Each structure stands twice: as C-alpha cells, then as structure tokens.
Amino acid sequence: MFNLDEAQALVVQHTLALKPQRVPILEALGLLLEEDVLSDIASPPHDKALVDGYAVVAEDLTNGCGELHVHEEVMAGDVPQHRVTTGTATRIMTGAPVPEGASAVVMMERCDRLGPQRIRIADPALKPGQHIMPAGTSLRRGDLVLQRGVEIRAIEVGLLAEVGRADALVIPRPHVAVLATGNELMPVHETPTAGKLRNSNGPMLLAAARRAGAQTLDLGIARDHKEQLADRISQGLNLDVLILSGGVSAGALDLVPKVLNELGVRQVFHHVRLKPGKPVWFGVHSHAHGSTLVFGLPGNPVSSLVTFQLLVQPALRRLAGRNSATGSLVARLVTAHAHHGDRPTFYPARLHEQDGLRSVQLVAWHGSADLASLAAANCLVHFPAGSQLHAAGDKVEVVEF
Ligand code: AMP
Ligand code: MG
C-alpha cells in the first residue's frame, strides 16, 4: 500500500498537460494562455481628447484666456478635417481624435459661447498637452500585451478583444466523466425504498470536477454487474478523466477493479494509507488519441470527497497546465483533539481567519457516510498516523476545499 505522497506523485507522473487549443476568447475565461499576444494596433490609435470641450493651440492664448472662432465639431468616431490654427478652435467630444495643430483641450466648463461659432476661454491653468492622451500611450503596435502562461480573467478577455483576437490559444478544460456504481443507488428524484439510498456522489463529484475547471459528462448509475459496468465504463474511456464512485473495496460486489482490468485499464495503485479513502484505485487507459486517467473512489461520500480532493484535483490542475499542488496551510486547533489511528487522517473542519490568524474547528461528524455534517466544513485537518493528543492552540496542517 502506498503512502499518500507516493500516490500523489504517481498520479502526477501519469498526467500531462492537455494539448493547447484555439477557443473563442469568452470560452478562454479561467484557462491558461499558451501563446504570447502582441498588439496589432496602437492604443489609443490617435491623440485622443479626454474631456468634452475645445481643442486649441495653447500657446495662442494668454494665461489660458482669449476668444476663438469655432470652425469644426468632432464627435467620437469622427475624423477631424481641419487643422486648428491661431485664432481657431475645434469643438471636440471625449474620445475623439484631436485635430492637427491643437496642443490642448479646454473643458467645456471653462468656455462661454458668445455666438454660434465664437467662444471665450478662461482657463488660467491651461498647459500644452492638457486633456490629451497621446497616440500609443497605452499600447504601441507590436507590444507584448499578454505573456504565455497567464490566466485569462475578464481583464485579459477585454485586452484580447482590444488587440483584435476573437480567439486565443489556451490549455482546454479537461473532459471528465463521472459514473456512480452500486445496486443500492437510486436517482435523485426518487424516494429511497428499503435498503436503498440516493446517488449523492454522482452530482457531488460532477460539481467538484466543474469547480476544479473541468467539463463534465454524467454517466449516471451502473449496477454492480460486470456487463453493465463494462458497458458504462467504456463510455468514459475516451475522455481525459473517468471518475467512478463505489465498488473498489473488498465486498463481494466490488467489481470495479476487475472490470477495469478486463477493459485494459492499467492499474497504477489500489489502496492508499489514508483515512477516509483507503480503497481508492487509480489507473491509466491508453488509446489511439491519448490516455484516460481512471479514478475509482470509495463509495462513502466523505471518502469520495477526500480522495477527490487529494488525488483527482491535482490531476485536473496538471491537465489544465497548472502546478499540481493544491497547497495546504497551517492553523491552530480551537479545541483539543485526541487522534488515534495507523493511517494519516483527514478530518472535516471549519477554518476561520481573522486579522491574519487562522484557527480551525473540527466538525462533529459520524464517519465517512455522514455527508450532512460536512455542510459546516470548509477544509480538512490532516492528522499524521499514530496516537497523538493535540491541545487547543496546537498548530495543524489544513487542506482547504
Ligand atoms: P462501496 O464503496 O461501493 O462499498 O460503497 C460504500 C457505501 O457508500 C455504500 O454502502 C453506500 O452507503 C455509499 N455509497 C456508495 N455509492 C454512493 C453514492 N453514489 N452516493 C451516496 N452514497 C454512496
Ligand atoms: Mg458498492
């Protein structure tokens, strides 16, 4: 049986970043850019008025004061036709190109209209360059706008649009299929009959995969039946990742490892020194267009969630081109806790942060079938193997959900 860090290393070893793909920029949101992006334009493309007002020759006015003849009006989107010369001004709107000859823009509020084409300006603070954004201030043609490796946020989507990119080369979202297995499982919309329970893992794992940036496919429920399992599992073996829940323990109907083996999925490990989640299975299926990572997670909901967090999530990060480490942090226990057990244990808890101090409170729960108590949790506390008495205030390692 492998230790958790060995199992995690094996998962990472078998996982490569997905091949870059060109996608529409809106679909690139949250993904990593796989190319350098240069600007095809200067921004602004022209000297641009930053206020509504009059474009003038600043040097033409005495202490910013004087009367001028208005010979043109330029709106945003227009192109000025006339040069501003001594004694003249162009009425100009925010964003419009500043006409040739003009060296400043005077705000509307500093001007009085004397007639249809005559204004008096009184702007004692007037300086050349005032209220003009010179062409290329933000970007010059050929500038590196975005560097390979950045994550596309709303800002990057806007920038890509500004430099004329309708699509971008990114590492795509991993495609993940989820299949719940078990004779006892009933679909969500039905009320469980004797001996049965609803399939909560399916939706939970689909949600966790989406939250981790994956595109998901719901393969529903398969019964503990070799043929049915083989049929359903095959439907997920052409995606990047197949996540199974249930059927990997030592029960009479835990057929998943055997069926996977018969389908040619190569086992990398089965069982990890871990609580909850020990029966977890991992293997790789190689096929014509690449390979599928296959995770068999134990059926108990908390075991499923913990093994997703510790083993599946790093794989999804790596497929998406990121560092596989999901990271942990240190917090102080709010109440004392006696830990016993021969396996490292991940205990659901609630992490609090106030004024930079982190504290963590274990939630009261009833073992790995108790999903309801996890609603109060936002992290897992890691207790190493062995018996230890942790006092209130002791530092512990925490993995955030
Ligand atoms: P297994 O890992 O198949 O032995 O399942 C262990 C236990 O987990 C089962 O007896 C169920 O109580 C529970 N379980 C299995 N699959 C699911 C599921 N999809 N949703 C909720 N609970 C499940
Ligand atoms: Mg089962």
Describe the structure.
With 401 residues, this protein is α/β, with parallel strands linked by helices. It is built from six helices and 29 strands. The protein has a six-stranded mixed sheet, with no helix packed on it. Strands 17-14-18-22-21-19 form a six-stranded mixed sheet, sandwiched between helices. A hairpin with a 2-residue loop joins β21 and β22. α3 runs parallel beside α6. It is elongated and about 95 Å long. The structure holds adenosine monophosphate and magnesium ion. The site of adenosine monophosphate (AMP) has 20 residues, from α3.
Features:
401 residues, alpha/beta, six-stranded mixed sheet, binds adenosine monophosphate, binds magnesium ion
The overall pLDDT average reads: 97
Task: Name the beta content range.
Answer: 25-35%
- Would you tell me the structural class of the helices and strands? alpha/beta
Please give the radius of gyration in angstroms: 32 Å
What is the strand and helix layout of this fold?
Blueprint: E1 2-3, H1 4-13, E2 21-24, E3 37-38, E4 48-49, E5 53-56, E6 65-74, E7 88-92, E8 104-107, E9 111-115, E10 118-122, E11 132-133, E12 144-146, H2 154-162, E13 167-170, E14 175-181, E15 185-186, E16 197-198, H3 201-211, E17 215-222, H4 226-235, E18 241-245, H5 256-262, E19 266-270, E20 272-273, E21 281-287, E22 290-297, H6 301-319, E23 329-333, E24 337-339, E25 345-354, E26 357-362, E27 379-383, E28 388-390, E29 395-400
This protein binds adenosine monophosphate (AMP) and magnesium ion (MG).
